[in-house]
Amino acid sequence: MTVKVIGISGSPHRHGNTETLLDNFLSGASHSGAEVDKIILRSMDYTPCRGCNACHKTGECIVQDDAEVIIERVMSCDCLAVASPIYSMGITAELKGLIDRAQYIWAQKFILKTLIYSDPLIRRHKGVFISTAGLPWEHVFDAAFPAITAFFNTIGFEYYDNIIANDMDTHKGIRGHPTALAEAFEKGENVVRVIGSLEKS
Ligand SMILES: Cc1cc2nc3c(=O)[nH]c(=O)nc-3n(C[C@H](O)[C@H](O)[C@H](O)COP(=O)(O)O)c2cc1C
């Protein structure tokens, strides 16, 4: 069966450092035979979560816009690459807004308990976080990881790997980074092989 990979670009900057890194990951995945698709959050239309908690009773979101369409779409893929640059030491508003809107899935899982992911299902769904940052600090991505962990947990994906590149200011962009683009391509190739081998076993 063809492995389906979706990349979400949470950068408002089209074809910048983060989307370019994501593109290399998706090219690697495609090279291994995956069907790949990319969602640009900037061009989608959704509002932040209102915190009304209606989903805690119904398991559904009362707001009808692109967020639910995106979430349902990504939950049907085998590998999800979530990409965001570091803004103010965290993920972008576009991505955080989408993650918050997955609260209705969280409610199905933790409050209503109508959604249960088996361990094999989680293992077959791989989540990868892709990020870039201007500063050279080792810990510049640290505040982003918990939100990504929460998102992958909510949607039933194993948090499989990170592809992160700091010090963009010194490298003058992702194309000046010595290893990140090749790493992204290789990791895209490899994750598709891993998922393919799980499906066979
Ligand atoms: C609004 C804004 C906030 C930023 N905040 C940080 C930050 O807190 N730490 C950091 O290392 N880089 C920060 N940066 C730099 C970006 O993370 C970096 O340039 C990144 O590679 C941009 O990716 P892009 O080309 O996909 O937009 C910020 C950039 C912008 C525009």
Give the topology, please.
Elements: E1 4-9, H1 17-31, E2 35-40, H2 55-58, H3 66-74, E3 79-85, H4 93-101, H5 103-111, H6 119-124, E4 126-132, H7 145-155, E5 158-165, H8 168-171, H9 180-200
Parallel strand pairs: 1-2, 1-3, 3-4, 4-5
Helix pairs in contact: 1-9
Computed over alpha carbons, the radius of gyration is 17 Å
* Order of SSEs: EHEHHEHHHEHEHH
**CATH architecture assignment name:** 3-Layer(aba) Sandwich
The helix count comes to 9
Calculate the terminal CA-CA distance, rounded to whole Å.
13 Å
**Which structural class is indicated by helix and strand composition?**
alpha/beta
Q: How many E strands? A: 5
Would you identify the CATH H-level superfamily? Flavodoxin domain
Tell me the overall shape. globular
Mean pLDDT: 97
User: Low-confidence runs (pLDDT<50, min 5 residues)?
Assistant: none
Percent helix among the residues?
40-55%
Fold-level CATH name: Rossmann fold
CATH class identity:
Alpha Beta
Largest sheet: 5 strands, parallel
Strand residue percentage = 15-25%
- As for the number of domains, it is 1
Order of neighbouring strands in the sheet with most strands: 2-1-3-4-5
Ligand species: flavin mononucleotide
